[in-house]
Specification:
heterodimer, A: about 300 residues, alpha/beta, Metallo-beta-lactamase, Chain A, six-stranded mixed sheet, five-stranded mixed sheet, globular, B: about 300 residues, Immunoglobulin-like, 3 helices
């Protein structure tokens, strides 16, 4: 009987595991500069240990308010982020900049709406968020479990037409939000904090892992990367991976998109299907990137199809 | 008491058993055994067990419905041979079950086949398409729907009256390729293209051979999806595609709603022809032409 109880407790323990770990996204912010913080996302793919928290989230504290960059993958994650921010400052979180619509950056929006944060997101991307949100939410739930997405909803929100660049004042702290249309996504937002000279560039730049390009216009994206390299900044916070100090680190992103673009272009010219390219094995180039294989399998067919029939 | 608990913990962490919350999930597409040395299988827990599971699932003896399907789709009292030189190239692990690309390559001895039927065993609509060719075809491709994990089988009727069958096991991450809407208008903004829009591409392959790709914009409703009011959206799909070029007919293709919306069909022919064109009929009797029809058709 006692053993039975132990086993029972043990089974309960096992099945409550995601709840335990959900309480623990390992959210320890890195202070990049005074009052500028970053939570680095897991560089693995979405799985049931990281709860989808694979992208970077930032926050900047001014004298009267706080700005957050990216909402993260879920209500739960956003709640945790807000909790941590509260432990740093009691000022209101006035703005949330969502750099683009992908799930790992936008699905926490529902939590910020509850605390009356103003959401800033490119109009085209807000549309995509509504259009594809529920489908990807369903897929993510199937993939890593309902528990991670409790209360996560795809909400429409006020996103009145804005003229970019937007200038915001957090109280003796000026922020600029710039729009980069049809690059990595239909509208990527870049946040610049003037005091610290730090740039949050969302998924226009990836470090460590392979860049994802399902909604990309690669030609524009490459030009944007050149622009970002020429800009003046001390630190650059990519959407995924480590904080960038050296401009050369941006080349990883450029090399990848060049490679996948070239492959897709050639394939579409010759009518070759992605499956046939996969069949030949993985190009060595892919091995230089974390999640290279997964990203290659996912994005190449999308690009080829786009180039072939659009 | 603690001792037992620890023993159990060690038991689990040594990886002996227990999928579930702690399973080591690996996301991303994985390729079949012919494509990579580490085949996956069972969703969430790729392991060598998956391969065994695939092999089991592909064995028709283990299938509860294969022999009924065979009688129904291929005919009774026929010769059937399961072979491994009909290659079904598709991903093992499928993220988007509404649109699954597949290429079937045929061995030389089957290039002059008489009939080709693509069967997805565990689909509510099991037959995706059939092709009766007028010329030899070396490979064909299509986009299909997968309702759930399923063996996918290409049945090829040869000159000698034997049905040769190639098989491949496919696992889906998120079930419902036939029964859930690809885009749900209650919560998403859906855009649909113009029904009946046709795109044809011709490519040159090695030694004067040709590849044809057709894309037809069509919803390919399965009849298993409900709309906003909970009403079933009736089935509505492309039924026939007649393909020809300046040298005459190439193939008659019969299609079903187990092909994905906006179906793409690929045909590899040994010789390049000129001005490929198609004539499409759908289940409501609408007809679409890639060329200007004349009144006698």
């Amino acid at each position: 009987m006692r053993i039975f109880n132990i086993i029972l407790i043990f089974i309960l323990y096992l099945y409550s595991y995601p709840v335990f770990s959900a309480n623990n996204f390992n959210l320890i912010p890195i202070e990049v500069s005074k009052n500028v913080y970053v939570f680095l996302g897991d560089i693995n793919d979405v799985n049931n240990n990281n709860g989808g928290a694979i992208s970077n989230t930032g926050f900047i504290i001014g004298d009267n308010s706080i700005l957050v960059i990216d909402a993260g993958p879920s209500y739960l994650y956003a709640s945790k982020v807000i909790e941590v921010i509260k432990s740093y400052s009691n000022l209101p979180i006035k703005y949330l900049v969502v750099t683009h619509h992908h799930a790992d950056h936008s699905f926490g929006i529902s939590r910020y709406l509850e605390i009356d944060t103003e959401i800033i997101m490119a109009e085209a991307e807000a549309k995509r968020y509504l259009k594809y949100g529920n489908r990807s939410l369903r897929q993510l739930r199937d993939l890593i479990g309902e528990e991670w997405f409790l209360n996560t909803k795809i909400n429409s929100f006020k996103n009145k037409e804005k003229k970019y660049p937007i200038n915001l004042d957090l109280g003796n702290r000026n922020i600029t939000v710039e729009l980069y249309e049809e690059g990595h996504s239909d509208g990527d937002l870049i946040v610049k904090d003037k005091i610290s000279n730090i740039l949050f560039v969302g998924d226009l730049v990836f470090t460590q892992r392979a860049p994802t390009s399902p909604h990309a216009n690669i030609y524009n994206w490459k030009n944007y990367l050149d622009e970002i390299m020429k800009k003046d900044w001390d630190y650059l916070i990519p959407g995924h991976g480590n904080i960038v100090k050296n401009k050369e680190d941006i080349l990883q992103t450029k090399k990848w998109i060049n490679f996948i673009d070239k492959t897709a272009n050639e394939a579409s010219k010759n009518g070759v299907s992605a499956l046939e390219i996969f069949n030949k094995g993985l190009p060595n180039f892919i091995n230089n990137y974390k999640l290279g294989k997964e990203t290659w399998y996912r994005d190449l067919p999308i690009l080829i199809n786009k180039y072939e029939f659009d | 008491m603690i001792k037992y608990f620890l023993i159990l913990l060690i038991f689990v962490y040594s990886g002996v058993t227990v999928a579930g919350p702690m399973s080591d999930f690996k996301a991303g597409a994985e390729l079949s055994e012919e494509l990579s040395s580490s085949p996956t299988g069972k969703r969430n827990t790729p392991s060598s067990d998956s391969l065994i599971q695939s092999i089991d699932a592909l064995n028709p003896e283990n299938s509860s419905i294969w022999y009924d399907l065979q009688d129904h789709l291929l005919g009774k009292d026929i010769n059937v041979l399961f072979v491994d030189d009909i290659k079904l190239i598709m991903q093992d692990y499928i993220e988007e079950a509404h649109k699954v690309p597949l290429i079937v390559t045929l061995p030389k001895r089957l290039h002059n086949f008489k009939n080709f039927i693509l069967i997805i065993e565990n689909n509510p609509i099991q037959q995706a398409m059939s092709i009766k060719p007028y010329r030899s075809i070396e490979a064909l491709g299509m986009n299909i729907r997968l309702e759930d994990d399923s063996p996918v089988r290409a049945a090829v009727l040869a000159d000698n009256g034997v049905w040769y069958i190639g098989s491949k096991m496919a696992f889906v991450a998120s079930a419902g390729g036939c029964s859930t809407p690809a885009c749900d208008p209650s919560v998403e903004v859906c855009e649909t293209g113009t029904i009946g829009k046709i795109a044809i591409k011709q490519y040159e392959r090695e030694a004067g051979a040709e590849r044809i790709k057709l894309k037809i914009t069509h919803p390919m409703e399965t009849g298993f999806v409900t709309d906003l009011q909970g009403e079933i959206i009736p089935e509505y799909f492309v039924k026939n595609i007649h393909v020809d070029d300046n040298e005459g007919p190439i193939a008659d293709i019969t299609t079903f709603a187990a092909l994905s919306s906006d179906p793409i069909i690929l045909l590899d022919l040994p010789k390049k022809g000129q001005s490929v064109r198609i004539h499409v009929k759908d289940s409501l009797g609408l007809e679409f032409f890639s060329y200007k029809e004349n009144n006698t058709m």
